[in-house]
Amino acid sequence: MQLIENIRLAFTSLLANKMRALLTMLGIIIGISAVIMITTIGTSIQKTLSNTFNSFGNFNIFDVILMTGEDPVMQDDLISREMLDELVETYPDYFALEMGENIGTATTRNSNGQIITVSVSGQMDVAPMMDHLRGRTIQYKDNVNKKNALYVSDLFIRQYFPSGTDPIGQTVNLTFDNGMSSDFVIVGYDKLPQMYEKQYPPGMKEMDKTTPVTVPLDTMLEMFHTPQEPQFYAMIRYNTDYDIQMQQDLLQEFFDEKYAEKPDISIQIMNEQQYLGMMNTIINVVTIAISIIAAISLIVGGVGVMNIMLVSITERTKEIGVRKALGAQNSAIRMQFVVEAIMICLIGGIIGILLGIIGGLCIGWIAKVLVSEFYAEYAELISITIQPSIPAIIISVLFSVLTGVFFGYYPANKAAKMNPIDALRYD
Questions:
Q1: Cβ neighbour number for residue 195 with a 10 Å cutoff
Q2: Looking at the structure, do residues 71 and 187 belong to the same domain, yes or no?
Q3: Count of domains for the chain
Q4: 9, 308 in Cβ contact below 8 A?
Q5: Which strand (E) or helix (H) includes residue 237?
Q6: Which residue segment(s) compose the domain that 280 sits in?
Q7: Domain boundary among 219, 243, 271
């Protein structure tokens, strides 16, 4: 009951001096709103990264990175193609090679004699472009057997087969920029991803669009007589039907065994979730660091609360004297002014939280406008999500209360220790 009465007295005092109370809260409002805005931006970036990664689907890729010491690395120490082939042949159910190379452009003609330009890439083992696969993709066995297989998009199908012919098993002749020409058999096609569609100028005729096609990498290397050099880095696709950590451990054991006699060389294996976790950690560290800097303004706000409470106590000296003369205990007087300081900080904190959330939402809206205006081709791929940090809001409320207690206790204690006779004499 006494707490409710103290809250009522606090509101009465604040309403009696509205402008002074608002100016007192200003430091708290600025500090809390800055912290909430920063944490909202940090949380939103993390959520945006996660959603954007998920919108692409699971890449299910391990990055195998060769780490070296001080000694120079010889060509024989690098990750060789033979080593990768042995991995796939040893664990065919778990791993596939994610190797590719941009071959360049090529042309072909459809049944109407129209020229079609394609962008050719050589791949070892291709994951479906989307989820509308017809036939199959380029596979590891196509590379081993040096097959002239061709994996295309639905755009290419419409360009090359205007009559609606079933494309699977049909032969397409591709003429490359260097003049070489070869026949390829279509083994499958899929829906062209939106990221490709966005790259075409608005209103561009379908026949004028350069469409991506994929062929076996080994077939192209043999055709162009290009050797495949050992690398510091390799990409291995894992099977999502099995435990990821188990496959990562298996991969680590395989390469550790290969480099067992080379202690100066180690292999580091990462996947996309680990990269995302690292980015989130960096964002968290930066967000916390900036939030701490922004929170320094709360100290300034707390000093302002202490100052205004001292002024308020001086103005209300007679009131304090009357209350003590009527039997009010020191603890009651102390509690009255502590509660008043808490209410100042709490109201300022709530206003700051609301302003911080609104500021975060505005920044998110601006980010969406900028992406759609300047990066329209990626607008549908970047899923911007604005999410205020609930922990930051809760901590801000508690911090506001603690600020009121800390900076309000000294003035309240000073009021509680007043001599009632001296207080009644005060003019």
A1: 12
A2: yes
A3: 2
A4: no
A5: strand 233-238
A6: 2-55+276-425
A7: 271
pLDDT 10s digit of each residue in the chain, 427 long? 466 766 776 677 777 777 877 877 887 888 888 888 888 888 877 777 776 666 554 568 888 888 876 667 777 778 888 888 889 888 888 888 887 888 889 999 988 888 999 999 888 887 765 566 788 888 888 888 889 999 999 889 998 888 778 889 999 999 988 888 899 999 999 888 776 777 777 778 888 888 899 999 888 888 887 777 777 878 888 888 888 889 889 999 998 888 888 878 888 888 877 777 787 788 788 878 877 777 777 777 777 778 777 777 776 667 767 776 777 677 777 777 788 788 888 888 888 889 988 888 888 788 777 766 666 655 555 667 777 878 888 888 887 788 878 877 777 777 767 666 655 555 5
Count of beta carbons in the 10 Å neighbourhood of residue 392: 24
Work out the burial of residue 123: count CB atoms within 10 Å of its CB; fewer than 13 is exposed, 13-18 middle, 19 or more buried: buried
Nearest to 240 by CA among 54, 60, 98: 60
Q: What is the pTM of this model?
A: 0.59
Paired tokens of 177 = 């920029």
> Can you name the residues that pair with 79 across neighbouring β-strands?
231
HEC-encoded secondary structure of 242-274: CCHHHHHHHHHHHHHHHCCCCCCEEEEEEEHHH
Asked if 241 and 304 sit in the same domain, the reply is no
